[in-house]
Amino acid sequence: MQLLIMRHGEAGWHSLDQERTLTEAGRSQTAECAARIAASPWRPEQIWSSPYVRARQTAAIVSEILNCPVDEKAFMTPDDDPGLLLDALLENQFSPLMLISHMPLVGSLATLLVDGHRRGIPFMTAQAVVLDMPVIGPGCADLKTQFLP
């Protein structure tokens, strides 16, 4: 399985975290990263997105550029357990699949899949990485490349 993990674009401030929206810079950096993915061999078949506004907005931009459907997943918010996402990946039929979510979840998931631990690596806003997993499980993925805005 090939998996793209992307952090949402730059977001502004809001009193409710789940209501934060993308800034103009966030929209621009998201489109730039999506265009790089579109020119690569790792175009996703489907996108899974967090239900938070900034992730849904990021997914909409990426979806339009890549002509790819989006499926919103309730278990992809910032503080969700990456183990829940790992369980969902075991049931997944799409490859490449793209996940659009938040820190610390994207960092924790990436290190869980590559290194087998959940300490997490930092992701810039609108950054995406490509993982290749012959078997889905902790420590089973290889980092193939990354896309930066």
UniProtKB/TrEMBL annotation:
Pfam families: His_Phos_1. InterPro entries: His_Pase_superF_clade-1, His_PPase_superfam, SixA. GO terms for molecular function: protein histidine phosphatase activity. CDD domains: HP_PGM_like. GO terms for cellular component: cytoplasm. This is Phosphohistidine phosphatase SixA.
